[in-house]
Amino acid sequence: MTDTDRTHDVVVWGATGVAGRFTAEYLTERYGPADLSLAVGGRNREKIDALVDDLTSRSDAWEDVPVVVGDATDPESLRAIARDTRVVCTTVGPYTAYGTPLVEACVEAGTDYCDLTGEVNWVRESIDQFNETAVENGARIVHSCGFDSVPADLGTLLVQSFAAETYDEPCESVRIYLDGGSGSVSGGTLASFGELFEAAATDPLAREALRNPYSLAPRGERSGVDPGEQRWPRRDPLRGEWTAPSPMAPVNERVVRRSNALLGYPWGREFKCGEAVPTGSGPVGAATASAVAGGLGLFSAAMSLGPVRNALREYVFPDPGEGPTREEAEAGSFLIRVLGRGTGPDGPFTVEAEFGADRDPGYGATARMLGESAVCLVRGDVDSPFDGGVLTPASGIGLPLADRLREVGFTADVGES
User: Fold this and answer.
1) Does pTM top 0.85 for this prediction?
2) Any idea which fold 3-147+362-416 has?
3) Quick one: three-class SS letters along the chain?
4) Given this model, what pLDDT does residue 299 score?
């Protein structure tokens, strides 16, 4: 089947969920039907029709938005959607529970795909199960196209591209800092956390994926010099201030290492990356770093215990589908700073990138990151050596995604530090 035989450019799958709704709203506000053949999909026709009514009421350009209906428990319905679509853009998590049949359908149909997953164990399964067939069928499966892990992955790519152009050498190490921001967490995101800890408690392969810093690298290359994510308060080697562990480091660091491996190690096999949360200098910075590290440790310990995990899901966490309002999603912000250190012909150098937006990182900003990832894929607006495979944002799309995000208000700057 050729692309000209397909009805839809992009299907937003899971469009009635919180992240899916924000993504559908963004795409219909940013693009018209003459620019993008868009459809929205899910399993509940009544809810999807209500969403379409809302989308068309907000837009003068869209008189109607096509609807597709399917179910993760009905693989043939997903195959039909994949065969009729150029790019499936999915927000349906937890991906460990619901994601595999859709990836399989896209791989079989040679359909490009992007998602929001931060579930390392499931990405590892996707790589091992589908990468070879995705390469053969020309299906670009690009995981982690939201706050996990576009800022870290593209920020690193920006730093390394600048270093190569300016100093003829890559950075030997990169540090990623969550320098600021405000936002909220939805029930779907917390459900994904629950699935991740559930898998780690019951599945040896999932535990190995979370223990090994190189678990997302290609087969046969899952070892290296990086010891893994920071777990304790630490005085940062580049900024000289105290830092705490980052809750996103287990995902983002592994995605960045996979990008380096897939691209053929342009940053070297000894390349190191780490992510942390800066807390300041002096005694206050040290105390804050200790408090953050302690809080993350307690949360991880609690989520590792089945009865506690189940009680949190039942009585504390919001239900999947619950999340911030449109106003709340537009009121947040985030700033990721990436510092790279290398050695050129004239001695050591440091490169700095800033990646951020004036929107809630998990929803308002993520809707743009995911939506523009899908547009890059459908238009072939990519800087990538790959026509297919299980890829990362940096290896599967590259700097054109940063260009598109700048056009919609993101900061994506890089220069000497």
Assistant:
1) yes
2) Rossmann fold (3.40.50)
3) CCHHHCCEEEEEECCCCHHHHHHHHHHHHHCCCCCCCEEEEECCHHHHHHHHHHHHHHCCCCCCCCEEECECCEHHHHHHHHHCEEEEEECCCCHHHHCHHHHHHHHHHCCEEEECCCCHHHHHHHHHHHHHHHHHHCCEEECCCECCEHHHHHHHHHHHHHHHHHHCCCCCEEEEEEEEEECCCCHHHHHHHHHHHHHHHHCHHHHHHHHCCCCCCCCCCCCCCCCCCCCCCEECCCCCCEEEECCCHHHHHHHHHHHHHHCCCCCCCCCEEEEEEEEECHHHHHHHHHHHHHHHHHHHHHHCCHHHHHHHHHHHCCCCCCCCCHHHHHHCEEEEEEEEEEEECCEEEEEEEEEEECCCCCCHHHHHHHHHHHHHHHHCCCCCCCCCEEECHHHHCCHHHHHHHHHCCCEEEEEEC
4) 72
